[in-house]
Amino acid sequence: MGVFSKGERQHDRDVAAQDRHRLRPAAARIGSFLLVAVAAVACGSKGKPATPAVTANVSDKCPDLAKADELAAFDFSTEYALSRDAADKLKAGALAAMEINILADKLDADFGIACAQIAHDLGDKGDWRSANDACGAAIKAVQEARAKLGPKAQARLVVRRPLCVTDASLVTKCASICDSSVPAEKVRAECEKTAGRCDGNCDGSCEPKGAVKCDGVCSGTCEGPIKGTCGGRCKGTCDGKSVNGGCHGVCIGTCDRGAMTGECKGQCTGSCDLAKPGICDGVCTGSCTVELAELKCAGDFKQPEVSTDCRARCDLAVINNTECSTPQVGFVVTGAKDRETSEAMKAAIDKSFPALLKTLDEVGEKGPKRVLNAQAVIEGARTGFKEMARSGGAAAASEAQLVKCFDEPFKKAAAAAVVVKTGIDQAMGVRDEAAK
Questions:
Q1: How many other C-beta atoms can be found within 10 angstroms of the C-beta atom of residue 182?
Q2: Cα 383 from chain centre
Q3: Which of 98, 307, 364, 399 is deepest in the core (most CB within 10 A)?
Q4: In a 3-state reduction of DSSP, which class is residue 166?
């Protein structure tokens, strides 16, 4: 072994230090690589592929489809890694499903009670499991009763249409929730007709709190002489001929046991179309010499500039939040060969039709179409889970979560929409059979 001088040994130490300095970064890189490799082996030790990091952004939360406030506040885009448009479509579908379920429960109760009562009063003592079954039985019972009246019988259904109102801000609030792409100033929905308390003079129609003198056209009931349509017993003249019974023309005299429309010389209960602006101790529909208080919408809304999906949901929200006063009804039959059946029909219709027609007025003539529009929104959202999921970059995880949360509820809501549409059609059928 050779002997090195002091200078040579110092040189060797300097070279070694330089080598260690050069090797340090490489060692660090190798160490980092080994740590990553160990972590990867640990994560994949069970033989499953590593889950992409983006799936951590997909929540496992499912909003409660029965709670409007929760659906409104739920951030579909962030929770499920969706684009804004996809999130809006999903939210509109969820809200439409909620509205359909609310409407289904309401109609099954309201139509079920009214139709069962009509069928029972006309002799069918059946026990029905649903409103649709009860209304089907009511249609058949009315048809059979009409057949007994004979071919010469004439019938008339006289109805004082009720006042139906909705919160004037409802559609604006609804539209602002289900379409995030529209600026706030574009979602404002104006009422085509307003109603409220008038502390000045009302120019339009007045629905008073009780019986009042009506200087105009009374629609409802009249305690006193009338000139107009009588849905009860006309005592006086009918189209100029003496009468004490049903009148299919203009009754001049009194109208008992039924609704009327026309001139009322006594006390009018119902609504009064004012001949000129005047005091209205009730709800004024039209204009007022001062600003209307307790403002409500008494007609259609001018549609906001939102998506068709959002609009369909809001149309159902209007149905579910419309409240109508109970209408007065009168049924007149003349020329019947079976007086007992004629009296039974009048009694059944006078008793049960106010509730039936109130619910139909709340649904509105556009109701069936609006239900079908909402059904299309729900089904469109349900069949679009895959496309929605692809919109945000976490396709597999997003789609699985959407199916988990919404597939079954949307399927049930779409089926409920079919039942609702059929129920409305049948209730209208009961009404139309009586009005023939």
A1: 17
A2: 22
A3: 98
A4: strand
The closest of 16, 12, 56, 65 to 414, measured between CA atoms, is 65
By the 8 A CB rule, do 304 and 189 touch?
Answer: yes
What is the Cα–Cα distance from 131 to 326, expressed in whole angstroms? 20
| Residue 297, Cβ density class (10 Å: 0-12 exposed, 13-18 middle, ≥19 buried) | buried
Which SS3 state, helix, strand or coil, does residue 141 take?
A: helix
How would residue 145 be classed by pLDDT, with cut points 50, 70 and 90?
very high
**What's the rounded Cα separation, in Å, for the pair 63 and 80?**
12
Dist. CA 370–CA 52, nearest whole Å: 42
Q: How confident is the model at residue 398 (pLDDT cuts 50, 70, 90)?
A: very high
Q: What are phi and psi of 197, to 5 degrees?
A: -85, 130
Q: How far is CA 14 from CA 21, 25, 260, in A?
A: 11, 19, 117
325 contacts 242 by C-beta, under 8 angstroms = no
Q: Say how many CA atoms lie within 13 Å of 44 toward its Cβ.
A: 11
